[in-house]
Inverse folding.
């Protein structure tokens, strides 16, 4: 059997990341997959990168998310194709602040992250980790998507298991020929539960099972740190962390 921890969307929330990392080290899975969106919005982007690099040194596979492109290179058209009439100032200010908080070495690491990584389980099952969906960092597996679109996006890879984030809502979706594992969000969840959300995946003789995990962290402390920063939109970011619901 191969056991894999799947986490995503840390969003600069070091308290949440440290809590989840501690739980993962206690459970000792065979692999750790981290599906991007690592630094934007939260109060400690540099600390998150340092902690992620430790996980990487321990074997974690890490990919880039769309907001990592915004922070690393200010390529807003690539990071946010939905904004056809210009990037909101709230997004631009947060990306520029996070960029300035990172040193050159941290920025270089963020920019070097691949868009996708793959691994083989012990039974040779192919597992893909990508931020949103195969071939895309912005087109996710949203719960409201038409089933035909879900199947079309899932078919863009030969991987039996697709590990993603992006939606900030945890979900395990078994399509029969594929299993989509969305761990939700470690640091910026939208499902109404203000805890860190991630997933544990087991693969054994072709069978795939996954469980959503929740890990408590000091959400109020993180929300207060965001509020004290005072960037445009921080009042809404703080409320999102505090409540576990998207506030905007």
């Amino acid at each position: 059997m191969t056991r894999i921890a799947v986490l995503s969307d840390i969003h600069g929330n070091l308290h949440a990341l440290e809590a989840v990392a501690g739980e993962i080290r206690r459970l000792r899975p065979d692999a750790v997959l981290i599906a991007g969106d690592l630094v934007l919005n939260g109060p400690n982007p540099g600390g998150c990168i340092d902690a992620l690099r430790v996980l990487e040194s321990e074997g974690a596979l890490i990919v880039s998310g769309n907001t990592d492109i915004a922070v690393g290179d200010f390529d807003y058209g690539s990071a946010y194709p939905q904004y056809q009439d210009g990037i909101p100032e709230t997004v631009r200010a947060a990306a520029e602040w996070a960029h300035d908080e990172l040193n050159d070495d941290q920025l270089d690491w963020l920019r070097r992250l691949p868009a996708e990584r793959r691994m083989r389980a012990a039974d040779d099952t192919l597992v893909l980790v990508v931020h949103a969906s195969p071939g895309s960092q912005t087109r996710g597996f949203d719960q409201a998507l038409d089933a035909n679109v879900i199947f079309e996006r899932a078919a863009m890879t030969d991987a039996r298991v697709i590990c993603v984030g992006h939606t900030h809502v945890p979900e395990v979706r078994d399509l029969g020929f594929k299993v989509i594992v969305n761990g939700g969000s470690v640091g910026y969840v939208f499902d109404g539960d203000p805890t860190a959300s991630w997933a544990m995946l087991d693969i054994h003789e072709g069978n795939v099972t996954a469980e959503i995990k929740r890990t408590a962290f000091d959400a109020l402390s993180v929300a207060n740190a965001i509020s004290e920063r005072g960037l445009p939109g921080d009042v809404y970011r703080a409320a999102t962390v505090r409540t576990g619901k998207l506030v905007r």
Remarks:
- The longest strand covers residues 196-204.
- Residues 2-117+185-243 form a domain with the Purple Acid Phosphatase; chain A, domain 2 fold (CATH 3.60.21.10).
